[in-house]
């Protein structure tokens, strides 16, 4: 079995994301490699998100001019980690 270093692994992961590999494929790959991946409790099915969005709109908790994409990505630019250094 060939040895794979961290740099090669990161490069391969980057290539995979560029080809829009689904989370299901990644989970299956980890499972096949012997890693057990727990389901993320934050994952909410799309249909459920749509229902919640409609309910918020009906209760007038969200203005009609706010798009769901903007609402869901509101904090996407928030810094969640530090820059790695060598």
Describe the structure.
This protein is mainly alpha-helical. The chain has one domain. It contains 4 helices and no strands. The longest helix has 13 residues, at 6-18. It is elongated. The two termini are 29 Å apart. 0% of the residues are buried. The model has no long low-confidence stretch (mean pLDDT 77). This is DDE-1 domain-containing protein. It comes from Araneus ventricosus (Orbweaver spider).
Kindly summarize this structure in a few lines:
With 86 residues, the chain is mainly α.
Summed over residues and divided by their number, the pLDDT gives a mean of 77
Q: In the residues, how many domains can be counted?
A: 1
Which percent bin holds the helix content? 40-55%
Q: Judging from the principal axes of the Cα atoms, what is the shape?
A: elongated
Protein name: DDE-1 domain-containing protein
List keywords for this structure.
DDE-1 domain-containing protein, 0% strand, mainly alpha, 86 residues, elongated
List the helices and strands and how they pair.
Elements: H1 6-18, H2 23-32, H3 46-58, H4 68-72
